[in-house]
Amino acid sequence: MSKKDSHNDEGNMSLVGHLREVRNRIALVFVALIIAFIVCFSFIKPLANLLLTMGRAYGFQYVYLSPSELLTSYFKLSMIVAVVVISPLMLYQIWGFVAPALTRREKKAILPALFGGLGFFALGAAFSYFVALPFMIQFLINYSASDFIHSAISVASYLDFMMGMLLTFGLVFELPMLAFVLSSLGLLTPQLLRKVRSYAIVVIFIVAAIITPPDVVSQFMIAVPMVALYELSILISAAVVRRKRKHEEEDDDDEDDDDEDE
């Protein structure tokens, strides 16, 4: 029996078996999410204060507009943090479910990206917190300055804004890992990325204009790293394609050697 046939036999499972496996994996993730949520909620005030401190440094004064607003904000923040905390477990469960149906090359393409993506997400969130958000808040403060209007910021609105920016930049920084996976699967080439580069840059600046205040400096500050990530994606895609071609040539040489031996 060939390795491919053996691989397919290992990947075969009845529909009931697949459903049972999905149920078990979802149940495990759900239990982990509940536990992580409870733990995160126990320590959520210091994290919320850390996010609120940035606004306080610029003179924000926080209020809550309904009796339950602050508690609801803590619940929402705890859930987001809990999802981030258990994301490695979620990725592992997804990997465990789909891995038997993948070839060896597909596994080599996807497995590093699943966990490497966590690092890029953390890098994007850090860039947002330490670079992008201070510029955005400073601009909004200056733009809204008035002699007779004073800021009284809703806690829920501020935390939603902060978490939205952190998650947005975390996802944007996943672009190199996405390029790695698609290139490894043969769905993306560096030639295509270079061909659409000019259109991609226009889209990047449009996205930067949407997620940032109407300030040219802030837009360039966000757009330039995104363009850099796009260029990095081209380099990653090119490296993956070169490696695939090298492996294919080695496989062809091995097949030729086998034919000569026969």
What's this, in brief?
With 262 residues, the protein is an all-alpha fold.
Protein described:
- It is flat and about 75 Å long.
- By secondary structure, it is mainly α.
- It starts with a helix and ends with a helix.
- Residues 1-11 have low confidence and may be disordered.
- Helix 2 packs across helix 4, helix 2 (15-42) packs antiparallel against helix 5 (87-98) and helix 8 runs parallel beside helix 11.
- A two-stranded parallel sheet has the order 1-2.
- It contains 11 helices and 2 strands.
Please identify the structural class as seen in this structure: mainly alpha
Rg measurement, Å: 24 Å
Tell me the strand percentage band. under 5%
Helix share bin: over 70%
Low-confidence stretches: 1-11
Q: Total helix count? A: 11
Order of helices and strands: HHHEHHHEHHHHH
Report how far apart the termini are: 19 Å
Number of strands: 2
Strand order in the largest sheet: 1-2
> What's the main sheet like?
2 strands, parallel
Keywords:
262 residues, mainly alpha, two-stranded parallel sheet, 11 helices, disordered N terminus
Map the helices and strands.
Layout: H1 3-11, H2 15-42, H3 44-57, E1 62-63, H4 69-85, H5 87-98, H6 104-143, E2 153-154, H7 155-172, H8 175-184, H9 190-195, H10 197-211, H11 216-261
Helix pairs in contact: 2-4, 2-5, 3-7, 4-7, 5-6, 6-7, 6-8, 8-11, 10-11
